[in-house]
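Reopening this ticket.

The earlier resolution said the output was attached, but the attachment link was broken on my side. Pasting everything inline this time so it's all in one place.
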Amino acid sequence: MQIVATETAMPLANAVVRELRGAAATKLQTQTFSNGQIEVRFTGSHTDVVLFQVFADCVHDRLFELLLALDLLRAAGAQRLTAVLPHLPYSRSDRPAATGAPVPARLLASLMEHAGLSRLVTVEMHAPQISGFFRCPVTNIDFVPALARHLSDVPPENLVVVSPDLGGAKRAERLAIALRCPVAVLRKHRENDIRKGVEVLGEVAGRAALLIDDEVNTGQTLLSAADLLKSRGATSVCLAVAHALFTPDAVARLCTSSVERVIVSDSTGSRIFPKNVEIVSIAGDIAACL
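Inline output:
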């Protein structure tokens, strides 16, 4: 098995290689021309290749870099091509936005398989049903075990794990079981399709709230949830997310928020995080799947 990676994915790829006690990952050479077009180069020939790509910036450039790399590695003799994409772009686009609209996640799956993909490894896919868009095997790694290991020294007596919505309730429940503490869920209360407020299903008063979600973009929803938990008596709020897609606005909001602690994985590669952000490595969990 040969591990290769784009430049932005090299730190994560090398961390996985260390877990596997193997040689260093091979870096793909990417050149961007003055007209904005991309060329990917690779020297060598391997039948079993694992390709790492992350999407820390310029998502569409990185996507086309991925497609070129898959096609190049297949042409170089790869008979089994595994792509490790810890954060899968367009994973929120699993259905048409309107009648007759495209399904971006399905299109992305088709493009990747056409380029030579044999297997996909990802982490905490927003919509697990997206795996059905792929004809090849898909491994969706759960972020909860790595997070639970990171929080193993937190006393469970005054802790509560909170999901910001009903869709993430199972994820919160898995973490609560691992940490041996109760779980709570925030539910949007509506009347005649009009949002009236948010209910807290579970007891948070007098407890440290651990708010868990799969990703954070602008941070507006999660930080509003943190304020709500504080208003309902939570002694502190810790935010834990698998994919930190912080926009500039999110960073500014974090600096003035009521969140005392922020924990993320390294799924987005070498992105620069605020100083108060704790990073949990998922390299060991990825290595165990290869």
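Reporter confirms the inline version is readable. The two ends are 9 Å apart (CA to CA). Helices lie at 10-20, 59-75, 104-114, 144-150, 169-179, 220-231, 248-255, 283-287.
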